[in-house]
Amino acid sequence: MTEIHERREGEAVAAQVVGAPSQSQTMEQRAAAEMLANRAACEAFCMNSGITPEEMRSACECVLSEWALTRPYHTNEADARRNLLSTIRVRIAEKRKEALSRGGLDARIEQQRRAAQLYAEQLQRTLAESHRPDDNPLF
Asked: How far apart are CA 119 and CA 90, in angstroms?
């Protein structure tokens, strides 16, 4: 029952972006709607790419609007879905590269750096406390 509910919820989210899959849509739009409706795959892609689902939806919209002008050739929906994911990956990499080339660090990269630094400091404190002679009966 929950699986059906999650799928319907994912389809509703996909309908907000590109509309529910229907015959009046292009093959690319149906592929994007089905991809966004598959919640588990969408979340896995977002986690691996380091983006939020909202960023993925907006990237899908951008790619689909570009494809509406260029009319790419896809043999089937699976081909369109693979091309869509590949295009989104390229755009994410370009956006990060552009952010780094402007001279400032992307906010997400800065946040990851700070988290790693805090973790390293906490680990050092934990190791220092565990190696005190009064805590260790061997000293």
From this structure: 31
How many Å apart are CA 100 and CA 19, to the nearest integer? 35
- Blockwise average pLDDT, block size 10, the chain, 139 residues: 43 45 70 86 86 88 89 86 91 83 66 83 80 58
For residue 96, give Cα distances in angstroms to 28, 64, 71, 87, 109.
26, 21, 27, 14, 9
**Tokens at 85, concatenated:** 């994911």
Question: String of b and e for 86-113 (b: at least 16 CB within 10 Å)?
Answer: ebbeeebeeeeeeeeeeeeebeeeeeee
Dihedral sign for Cα atoms in the order 40, 46, 50, 54:
negative
Distance CA 117, CA 114 (A): 5
| Sign of the Cα pseudo-torsion (79, 43, 22, 70, in order) | negative
**Residue type at 53?**
P
Q: Helices 53-70 and 2-18 sit at what angle, rounded to 10 degrees?
A: 50
In angstroms, the CA 79 to CA 59 distance is 18
